[in-house]
Amino acid sequence: MILISGLGLLFLTMTNRLGRVIDRSRSLLDNLESYPESYIIKINQEVAILWKRARYIRTSILLACMTCIGASWLIIMLFLSALVNLDLPMLLSGIFIFSMLCLSFSLLFFFIDVNMTLSAFKIEMESHDKKRLIIETKGYYK
């Protein structure tokens, strides 16, 4: 039961990240045609990273859901085995291992998403550095 409670917080974090990815994509793509070509190239790079991030988060959420379903089935099977006096150690072990593998891979995909955030931020920083150099150069020659 504790696993299911913890998964609820993990779901909250993942869905918030997915919502931010979608909101950021929409804000970048809004009025895209009105920007200069160099800016459009940068936006397309960021949107490509955001699309990959959304897919990783979706996969992470799917695996976390499978973990929750596995944990639910494990609890049901534990109660049924005690109620009916069944001995199902292999089945229970299999469900538990399946749930833990899904959780592990879910966290792995979540970690990949977090790292991809830095890739998108790097694109923004490179653009900012170029603008800063132009401003400094203009100020330097005055």
Shape: rod-shaped
Approximate strand percentage = under 5%
- Helical coverage, percent range: over 70%
Q: Ranges with pLDDT <50 over ≥5 residues?
A: none
Distance from N terminus to C terminus (CA atoms, Å) equals: 68 Å
SS class: mainly alpha
Question: What's the pLDDT, averaged over the residues?
Answer: 87
Please tell me about this protein's structure:
- The chain has one domain (2-141).
- The protein is built from three helices and no strands.
- It has helices spanning 2-29, 37-84, 89-141.
- The longest helix is centred in the C-terminal third of the chain and has 53 residues, at 89-141.
Q: Short description, anyone?
A:
The chain is mostly helical and 142 residues long. It has helices at 2-29, 37-84, 89-141. The chain has one domain (2-141).
What keyword list fits this structure?
mainly alpha, rod-shaped, 142 residues
SSE arrangement:
Layout: H1 2-29, H2 37-84, H3 89-141
